[in-house]
Amino acid sequence: MKSISTSLVQHLIAAQFPQYAHLPISPVPFGGHDNRTFHLGPDMSIRLPSGAAYAPKVEKEQYWLPKLAPFLPLPIPKPIAMGKPSADYPYQWSIYSWIEGETASVDHISDMTKFATDLASFLKALHKIDTTGGLVAGAHNFYRGGPLRTYDSEIQHALALTQDKSYAKKVTRLWEAALSSTWQGAPIWVHGDVAIGNLLVKDGHLAAIIDFGGMGIGDPACDLVIAWTFLKGQCRAVFQKALPFDEAMWIRARGWALWKAFCHPVEGQEEEAQRVIHEALEA
Description:
Layout: H1 6-16, E1 25-27, E2 35-40, E3 44-49, H2 56-68, E4 79-83, E5 93-97, E6 102-103, H3 112-128, H4 152-160, H5 165-179, E7 188-190, E8 199-202, E9 205-209, E10 216-218, H6 226-229, H7 233-242, H8 247-263, H9 270-282
Antiparallel strand pairs: 1-2, 2-3, 3-5, 4-5, 6-8, 7-10, 8-9
Helix pairs in contact: 3-7, 5-8, 8-9
């Protein structure tokens, strides 16, 4: 597929939503990996999947986000319209209302403890929503909420390439502990990618949660990795105390954090991946 350029998006809007053709369109900085995001005027955004693997998320978000939103304490994306595949672009795509905010970072947050508490409150509300008709974790959301064992082959491959055997033993010990338990409750809603890029901050406080493409129902352990990828010390403790989960859940969450950092470190952020691995191993 050719690159998703501003001119392509302008053409798609003009062809399918001519009522918006007069509005300026510009790319959003750091618009994401799974999707390319563009401003549409001052109050809307356009999101287009960057590849076939991410395309099924569009219709899922269009259907479920309006159903989840009334039960959540913070704003989430509001679908306005869904674009159709065409000769110029082969997937469905979305128009959403624009949500103001900056990507979460220590510099943008005025009170990290309150941030941790607010995020925990959001997750508790999400986990309580009726799951009737919800999509069980699977290929559509890269098995977020599914069993960690799905990714055991990736861990074993990465371990086989690890020359530091002492380090490999630590990784193996945590991974085996994470695999030793499974979620015994009924499936509950998971966001699927609670990462700083999907947490918006405004005026120093958590203001919105975005990108629900990884949503599904299953084991919520995958939603807790933020405890090791971003939260530290007392803030991590506050986050954990605010959520009603047992030790096995938190060990599975550490397993999710380990898998992502150990097997899929972001290019150029290898040091950060090593920090996350260390935090997960030493917790």
